[in-house]
Amino acid sequence: MRKSLLIEEDMETIPENLQHDEDSCVSGIASSSSNRRSLRPTSMPVQRSSICSRAYFVVVMVFFHVYILNVIALLLYVHYNNGPGDFDRQSLPSVGEGESPPHTAPPSSEPREEEQSFRLPRIEGIRVGHVQPVSLVSDRTHKMKTLSLKPLLFEIPGFLSEEECRVVVQLAQLKGLMESQMTAANWGHGGSDHPLLSLSTEEVFSLLDLNQDRLLQKQEIVSHSRSRDGTWLSPDNLRQILTVLEDCSTGALNLEEFKRVYDVSQGPIQEQSRKLRSQFKQRSKHTVLYQGPGSHHVLQTLRSRVISLTRLPAMLVDMSELLQVFRFELGDFSDAHHDSSPPHAETACSHTRLAGNTSMLPQVSCRYLTVLIYLSSVEEGGETTFPVADNRTYDELALVQDGVDLTDTRKTCSRGNLRIKPTAGTALLLYNHLSDGQGWMGELDEYSLHGDCPVKRGLKWVANSWVNVDPDYQQQARYQRLVAENHRAKSGMTEHSKPISHFDLHQDL
């Protein structure tokens, strides 16, 4: 009985305990939930900040990569539209040794499309005084300075060494200088004591000795004694030297043997030169030098540097005029002039006139650019003057100031806007024409007017390397195609014949 009562009491207390435990559990759950709610405000903001930071980073990186891609695309566009001369050389028609000339498309009814097949590279001047490096030789870098923007003119010191300048001068003297003859009364100067040929016999022997074996073979004398435009030795003098050479058992002349025959052969020429110079006073003297295969290595080096400097295709340089060397003595000068001519339908470029039906038209010089190299320094005078360089406007009437013509360098040399003193080895790069906007040769740059101030003391030696280009692209392309066909015809005559250089082809045409 008692046990049953105890069981009933226990059963009554269980619900109370359960309820108490349930209340404590509920309160525990509530407290835990309240704790969770109290923690959420502190944890959630951290998660939102992390998400925003990652999103901001992704947006920034996307914009950064898009910007980099745009810059790269712009650089590639500029490079392929205004790229270096190497790209232009690949697209130009050329004739290499042992190669067949490439096919050149005939003129079509869409000249603008054909004109864009290749371009003429053009160096940017940036601003007056800007200096940029140029690679002309393998062991050093030259510095090219912008002298003016109108015309586009650059100066390159050290283009040739003093030794190389001396060799070019000696070769010009050996070749013989042609003189512009005008009476002394018109010039107001007497004769000059400088002989036409002032080289010693030893120097002449060294220049003729191409392989430097201290012996002169027949082919060395013949190859350097004549060219397509004239002779280095007169036929009588050459005959005397070759006669002595044939009598030699060794088939070659040493220095002593060459001295005996050369000194005798030069006697009449020197006497004739003295008589001629007593009757005339020359404004300047000049000669031309061949730079193709078989020429002196210094002349070939000069040609290679012109190609590297101008960044033009080698074919254009090869097919241009021969190197011209000028000598200015005391009082000699040249009035201000343009090296090239403005393009006109009624005139024809002298270098391409035979490539079309233009042989009856007046011939003019078409020179895209001029590379002028000073071969000597001048003690006083002899500056190269540009009367209107970097003028705001060009007006022919403005060339006359106070009744004096600025093109008259004898009277107005000091008034030139730009005057350059000759320094041996320094070269000037002058663009005679503007660009036509399509990468070809355009109008004549009137600001390229230049001349030579009178020499007051010393001698002035300069060399001009002109690059000929026809403003009419189709005419230039037709001329190059004609040269290529001429080369193919001549190279096919004999199986083992040596390919003809572009210099020879240019002279043949």
Q: Nutshell version of this structure?
A:
The protein is an alpha+beta fold and 509 residues long.
Structural class designation = alpha+beta
Question: Based on CA inertia axes, which overall geometry fits?
Answer: globular
CA-CA gap between termini: 148 Å
**Roughly what percent helix?**
40-55%
Total helical elements: 14
Any overview of this molecule?
There is one protein chain. With 509 residues, this protein is α+β, with helices and mostly antiparallel strands. The protein has helices at residues 2-81, 85-91, 111-115, 162-175, 184-187, 201-208, 218-223, 235-247, 255-279, 297-310, 314-318, 409-412, 473-491, 502-508, and strands spanning 131-137, 140-148, 153-156, 178-183, 216-217, 226-227, 230-231, 252-253, 280-289, 323-328, 334-337, 348-349, 363-364, 367-374, 380-381, 384-386, 400-401, 404-405, 418-420, 427-431, 433-435, 441-444, 450-452, 455-457, 460-468. α8 (235-247) runs antiparallel to α9. The model is unreliable at 35-39, 82-116, 181-197, 226-231, 268-282 and 494-509 (pLDDT under 50).
Topology (elements, then pairings):
Elements: H1 2-81, H2 85-91, H3 111-115, E1 131-137, E2 140-148, E3 153-156, H4 162-175, E4 178-183, H5 184-187, H6 201-208, E5 216-217, H7 218-223, E6 226-227, E7 230-231, H8 235-247, E8 252-253, H9 255-279, E9 280-289, H10 297-310, H11 314-318, E10 323-328, E11 334-337, E12 348-349, E13 363-364, E14 367-374, E15 380-381, E16 384-386, E17 400-401, E18 404-405, H12 409-412, E19 418-420, E20 427-431, E21 433-435, E22 441-444, E23 450-452, E24 455-457, E25 460-468, H13 473-491, H14 502-508
Parallel strand pairs: 12-13
Antiparallel strand pairs: 1-2, 2-3, 3-20, 4-9, 5-8, 6-7, 9-10, 10-25, 11-23, 14-20, 14-25, 15-24, 16-19, 16-23, 17-18, 21-22
Helix pairs in contact: 8-9
